[in-house]
Amino acid sequence: MEQWFVYKKKADFQKIANQFQIDPVIARLIRNREILQEDEIRKYLYGDLSEIADPFLMDGVRSAVKILKDKIRQKKKIRIISDYDVDGIVSNYILWKAISDLDGNIDFRIPNRMTDGYGLNKHLIEEALEEQTDTILTCDNGIAATQEVQFGREQGLTIIVTDHHEVPFETMEDGTKRELLPNAHVVIDPKQKSCHYPYPLLCGAGVAFQLMRALYQQMNADETKLEYLLPFLAIATVCDVVDLTGENRIFVKEGLSRMNKTENVGLRALLQVHEMEHKQIKAYDLGFIIGPCMNASGRLDTAEKVVYLFLENRMECAVGTAQRLKELNEQRKRMTEEGVLAAMEQAQKYIQNGDKVIVLYLPECHESIAGIIAGRVKDRLHHPVFVLTNGKGGLKGSGRSIEQYSMFEEMMKIGDVFTKFGGHSMAAGCSLEMERLDEFRKRINEECKLKEDAFIQKVHIDIDMPIDYLNLEFIAQLSVLEPFGKGNKKPLFAHRKLKIEQVRVFGKGKNVIKLALKSSQGTRIDGMIFEEEDSFRGKMGDMKYITCTYYPVINEYQGYKSLQINIQNYFFTEE
């Protein structure tokens, strides 16, 4: 079920349009994204690297830089330990590349998802000690590794934690929250209370990049050399689904503008195997093509393979590795499709039983794709979803949430159920004993205060705008709003009642529907719907008109450009 809402926010759109030389509709779209002040609009449209905050404003950065500077000069062995997702892989590479270029004695380790589990653990610390490591530098993990950090310190290691996840806490008797920070030599996480960095929404790679900026400044190195890393930072920022606002927006824009010019052989190979070397790359390509290939390595093989790809100097070898990552991702897609079918069947039963938070147990599911399956089920049912499967020593799983439900905070309320957990409001991971599965499902639902209307998907329409307004110039101008993603969603328009003159079906799976449409004013346009034919025709029946939400695009074929709308939501009417 869906509810459609049209934004009705007020502003002097013509004045904004004149001031910034944009279409008034573009001005309205900017206002809908709560960008109000003149300086905010200017930064949104034209912001660049000069507006990224001083990295020393981030709590802990000054202390970390002092330690790293000394360790580099003393040739002490520094080991990076990251997460195994895209953000972790990129954070790891950013730190390795930057410190290596400063002649640091640096190596890296990415936990194996199956044998090591998430983040810092005792085994990895013992391994580092055996290999005469002096300093452990975490990235995209560590904020919840209290016991592991304490063990490392007791063994004489210097430990610097850099992370961006929510800080674990305990609720005091008076209802206040007390942070539970690891006892590292330095903790850098813009989400900790003591940090007053002006933009706390960076991904792990963003935190790592800012730390390296500070280190380069302190060591009088050429900071502009770090711009080589911006395409990687863009990939991590998009794939970790952090808000594409403020500094994240600037990092992604700057990274995308450099993507096709990258000198990194491994990244060029990834683009090549996807036939993207000469394409104008957008955030979508990072989130749905490049990122999943990188993630597939950590899911079905080892994430270290991706870092080694980025360190490769021989194009032939790099292309071979990139092709292998692409094949792994195809394998992951097939496994995901099977898992989603099993999950949906189970989820429907729990919804019928009245569960608000859906906790699924899929024993045949590969633990590496539990989060993807949870996300797919969440998108279809609009409920918070956990998918658990058999892991080493018990159950392991991942959760994906809806906007109204802070997953990490709700898990904190029943933290004793888990052997390990962490995450943020929209996504989380956990481990627990098999015999506590039913208890987890029962207690997480007992704590849930969501009302029924939270499970109705809200479709927020920017402007109720007939297709008659569209032209090539307007659609081209929409690009000033990119990159699109969380916190800066792609604009959504609506047209009431378009006549359907023809329906054509394409694709191997007959899942691309092309409609020839006509407005009441006589404007004709093609509309695309990506859905299986049987489902579409079952809804359409004999009806002749469609009311829809859409995003306009320019379709280019054999040098000819035409207008087209990609339809997102729709319903049919008889007349």
Please characterize this protein's 3D structure.
With 575 residues, the chain is of the alpha/beta class. Among the domains are: 2-12 and 459-573, OB fold (Dihydrolipoamide Acetyltransferase, E2P) (Beta Barrel), CATH 2.40.50; 58-226, inorganic pyrophosphatase (n-terminal core), CATH 3.90.1640; 355-455, Diaminopimelate Epimerase, Chain A, domain 1 (Roll), CATH 3.10.310. It contains 19 helices and 20 strands.
List the helices and strands and how they pair.
Layout: E1 2-6, H1 13-20, H2 24-32, H3 38-46, H4 61-73, E2 77-82, H5 86-101, E3 105-109, H6 122-130, E4 135-139, H7 146-154, E5 158-162, E6 169-171, E7 177-179, E8 186-188, H8 204-218, H9 230-239, H10 246-259, H11 265-273, H12 283-300, H13 304-311, H14 315-352, E9 358-361, H15 370-381, E10 385-391, E11 394-400, H16 407-412, E12 420-423, E13 427-432, H17 437-447, E14 457-461, E15 463-464, H18 472-477, E16 493-506, E17 512-518, E18 524-530, H19 533-540, E19 545-557, E20 560-573
Helix pairs in contact: 1-2, 4-8, 5-8, 5-9, 5-13, 9-10, 9-12, 11-14, 12-14, 13-14, 14-15
